[in-house]
Design goal:
Layout: E1 7-14, E2 17-23, E3 29-35, E4 44-46, E5 51-53, H1 66-76, H2 89-98, H3 121-144, H4 146-149, H5 152-155, H6 158-182, H7 193-205, H8 215-219, H9 223-231, H10 240-262, H11 272-280, H12 286-290, H13 292-295, H14 308-317, H15 325-340
Antiparallel strand pairs: 1-2, 2-3, 4-5
Helix pairs in contact: 3-9, 6-10, 6-15
Length: 365
Amino acid sequence: MNTFGGSCSQCSIVHWTLQCLCVDAVGDSSWSICGVGLCKGNGIANNGGKLACTVGINQCLSTYKYSTRIAYLETYGPIELGRRQILTKYENDLIANANVRGGGVGDVGGKKKSDQHSNSPLLASVHSIATATTVFSFLLFVILERRVLTDIQWLTSTRALALAGLSVVYVDVLSGLLHITLDNPTITHWPLLGPECEAFQGHHVAPNDITRGTWLRHLCEAHFVNAILCISVLVNRKSATLRQFLIFANVSSTWMMAAHRLAHTHPRDMWWWAKTLHSTGLLISPAHHSAHHITYTTNFAIFTGWCNPFLNFAVEYIGHPHNPLWVISFFLCMLAPTALSFGRERIPQYKPSWDGVKVAEGKQG
């Protein structure tokens, strides 16, 4: 890749962008930048005094505000690292591998994280417990609500459709808030949540690695959040509405994980029905999600993407995505269904005719 000689040094990462002072073969120096993750895990290298992807098209040129930021660096020098409180392990690795002198190729991001939790036995154990809790709770809810779930009239009632629709919107919003939280590099030192952020941010280094491995293992990644939602039912064990909603929410969260993986799947490997869901806007499309991997400040929701316009506005004008208040917002959203279950029932009720007496839909007083 280093066809024209040169080298890059004085590298740092600011706002998920690698910035280096590069020298070409004749000794002329200039600043060069490349968005972390744009090279799809294939690595970033020095090519004639400029940062470029080691394989394929040079996606470094797609870095957010490329020309403007190059001009800023040439005029004012490197952006102070003080603007970033914490650098993740992956960013530190990128910086270490990028400081290459003597005309060699600075292969950046070559180390891929194939298993997010393999290096942390504790984190792997936590996820295993979360999966067991989620599966057990889901089956328990289904058993407790088996009479309505086996009633075709109930499944096609206004109540069931309302719960299903609300679960889709809720999971989309929750996925966006979770994504903002886990993308935050300033909280990787926090207990319990920090390792989750560290592992999740490895996705930015090699975004297409999400399509590797088994589907079952991938879908289980959401169980950490699902387990907390299921346990929250203990606060209001008498609420059938809460149990029914969480049954739909668990199904929606599984589809959310599938949507994220499909958004990184190559079109040649995409199922026809997935392409249909992308084109109709029922799942996030690769084009929609790719915008996130360019700037890391937009399109955080990874299910339907319906709430992204609102989240994009909030991130742009209300609070920077690295603001810890987003973490609080995520946990409040996660606890919202349980809190609302104590209020007045506003979802249409349906009483099935199990005793041979047909009862119309309505609201319980």
